[in-house]
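Practice problem: predict the structure.
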Amino acid sequence: MALAVLGFAAVTDLLDGWIARNWKTQSSKMGSFLDPMADKILIATLFLTLTYADLIPIVLTGLIIVRDVALVAAGFIIRYQSLPPPKTLSRYFDASLATAQLAPTFISKVNTAVQLLLVGSTLAAPVFHYVGHPVLECLWYITGATTIAAAISYVLTKNTYKMLTRTDPKKS
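Answer:
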């Protein structure tokens, strides 16, 4: 059942992204910020749950969560820096006031796919009796490597976000 829910979440996330890319009236600057945040929450929840079930190593889950918390913190900092005065709490959390646009790096997209592959494979492992299989363990290392590479890419890539000059909420 959990694997089916994950599959449904993955399909709807892909569909949402496809719609946002192909119908510009269905995309927004705020959506470019909220969609990755929702993905981070989903990934963290899945990894924490599978680690609690002793199916994914705690070190890998810790690595993923530390990276994602750092990315979320950077997002909050970018939001603060890009918010024009007056910088009030209500304006900071006003979803209609888009001030920055985030763009994932290629390796980050690969990392998300690898993480979801690991989660799906791990969810299926007890059902199909391959818990602890060497291929799963290899996938742990690939996931760790792509997680580190994605974190580095965000630090080194210059175009991962851009400040928006237009702050009219009706145009965002």
